Amino acid sequence: MMIRTARLERALQHALRAPSVHNTQPWRWQPQGDVIKLFADFDRRHAGNDRSRRDLLISCGAVLHHFLVALAHEGHDAYVTYVPDLGDDTHLATITVTDAPPDPATARLFNAIERRHTERHRMSYRPIPKPLLDALVTSAHRFGAQLVPTPQVREAFAVAFGEAAERERWVPSRTTELRVWSRHDVRSAVLATSPEDAAEFFVLTTAEDLTRDRLRAGEALSSLLLTATNAGLATMPLSLDPDGAMLRLDEVTLGHPQIAVRTGWPLARGTDEIRSQRRAAES
Q: Does CATH place domain 2-115 in 3.40.109.10?
């Protein structure tokens, strides 16, 4: 039992590397032996920019998937019960650890956890080959999400980022709704949408838009980011503005757009990513 407890603790620590909007890390864990409960911490929600809690729930889904990847690396499988307590909307999932052999594909994502970071710069002119694009689509589809790569999506983001930058120019006190999942302002992201690189833009969509769907979207996001990192690609998650980009994306995607990802080959440069501080698992 002590050995398993140590493995679960290590898995929880690795899960803390999961991305979250503005590094809010809006989750709480409650380990109870072989059962780990995941709760939302609504006090960490950006009320002005995330009124629907979309970003918060996607963030929690991402940390859930990171935990399952780390758990698989430790040699354990698990099954997840989503939204188990209808009387407590903070209780998002209950994870029950088993001794069944883990999925090898899930375990292989583990090494990407420490290497993944948000790339805010322009990317390479080198296109992503179709087999790798197909692998990214499949990585999201495993969680019931669709990944939509189209030129129209890139164009929609270029327009949306331009409009966001213009709003910030005239109303600097307002934080743009369309934002990079980091603490950096939108100007870095505007540069990142430059047509001078070969980065791909994907929109991750779900058939429905309930709490479970947003959690699954977060799992799909995590799977996509780790799969891309293992392949040597750089990534940047992008939130969606329900009053702007979301409406435009409805015209080029099916289902409910949840979050977007920009990915491509990184340009050769020195290591300059900033490692965000991580919340302790017990906090």
A: yes
* Cα 14–chain centre separation: 15
Higher pLDDT, 264 or 273: 264
User: Among residues 152, 173, 124, 147, which one has the least CA distance to residue 237?
Assistant: 147
Give 130-264's CATH code, choosing from 3.50.50.60, 3.40.50.300, 3.40.109.10, 3.90.1150.10: 3.40.109.10
What are the tens digits of pLDDT across the range 154-198? 776 666 666 655 655 554 444 444 456 654 544 445 444 565 788
Return d(Cα 249, Cα 139) in angstroms, integer: 21
Digit-coded pLDDT (tens) for 249-267: 656 567 888 998 999 999 8
Cβ-contact 259, 219 below 8 angstroms: no
Q: Strand (E) positions, 33-85?
A: 35-40, 77-82
